[in-house]
């Protein structure tokens, strides 16, 4: 379930999100982490399309990993990967959302996001259940690739692009299936 607090679009039940799961991802064979066996890489694909803000799929995937018992989900970052000697690359900046921003000068730029972070809500972390609620923080901006500049998004009609970016928060809950007796 995904809830976007900024737009207020889903202020009740939220929206259903498809979760993709990849098992047995690559690790450093010479120095494998002791807890990598049967870990699962989990991803909510195309975050803004999932919450209904974009009709087109983007690169704004939210990725995290769960342990061998499908418990203790953690946000996947480059720090996490390095500490656990897992050979994966994770992009957290300039992720295309599938949306665009058109300014008065008739230029249209893709809207991108920089992922600031994901935190597990304390209540769900302590409950040790398979239902986990995350608070996602991200920055949104229109991106001019040629000039390598970020432009502020506004809820009003923009007449002139303003260099800046804005930070938003979203909340989503993920429910994991309990590990089998095997």
Structure description:
The protein has 3 helices and 10 strands, in the order βββαββαββαβββ. It has helices at 47-50, 78-83, 122-127, and strands at residues 2-3, 19-23, 40-44, 62-66, 74-75, 95-102, 108-120, 131-144, 149-151, 166-175. With 182 residues, it is mainly beta. A hairpin with a 7-residue loop joins strand 4 and strand 5. Strands 1, 6, 7, 8, 9 and 10 form a 6-stranded antiparallel beta sheet that branches. A 4-stranded antiparallel beta sheet has the order 2-3-4-5, with no helix packed on it. The chain is 9% helix and 37% strand.
**Sheet having the most strands:** 6 strands, antiparallel
- So how many helices? 3
What is the beta-strand fraction?
Answer: 35-45%
Total DSSP E strands: 10
- State Rg: 18 Å
Distance between the termini: 28 Å
Structural class: mainly beta
Compute the average pLDDT: 76
| Low-confidence parts | none
Q: Name the overall outline.
A: globular
Spell the H/E element sequence: EEEHEEHEEHEEE
- Helicity level, as a percent range? under 10%
In terms of topology, how is this protein built?
Blueprint: E1 2-3, E2 19-23, E3 40-44, H1 47-50, E4 62-66, E5 74-75, H2 78-83, E6 95-102, E7 108-120, H3 122-127, E8 131-144, E9 149-151, E10 166-175
Antiparallel strand pairs: 1-10, 2-3, 3-4, 4-5, 6-7, 7-8, 8-9, 8-10
């Amino acid at each position: 379930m995904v809830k976007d607090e900024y737009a207020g679009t889903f202020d009740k039940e939220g929206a259903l999100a498809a979760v993709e799961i990849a098992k047995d991802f690559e690790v450093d064979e010479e120095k494998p982490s002791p807890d990598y066996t049967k870990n699962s890489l989990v991803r909510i694909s195309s975050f803004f399309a999932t919450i209904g803000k974009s009709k087109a799929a983007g690169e704004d995937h939210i990725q995290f990993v769960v342990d061998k018992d499908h418990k203790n989900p953690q946000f996947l970052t480059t720090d996490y990967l390095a500490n656990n000697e897992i050979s994966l690359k994770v992009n957290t900046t300039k992720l295309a959302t599938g949306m665009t921003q058109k300014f008065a000068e008739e230029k249209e730029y893709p809207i991108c996001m920089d992922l600031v972070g994901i935190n597990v809500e304390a209540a769900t972390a302590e409950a040790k259940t398979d239902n986990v609620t995350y608070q996602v923080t991200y920055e949104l901006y229109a991106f001019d690739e040629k000039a390598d500049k970020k432009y502020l998004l506004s809820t009003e009609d923009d007449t002139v692009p303003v260099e800046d970016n804005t930070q938003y928060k979203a909340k989503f809950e993920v429910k994991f299936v309990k590990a089998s007796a095997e």
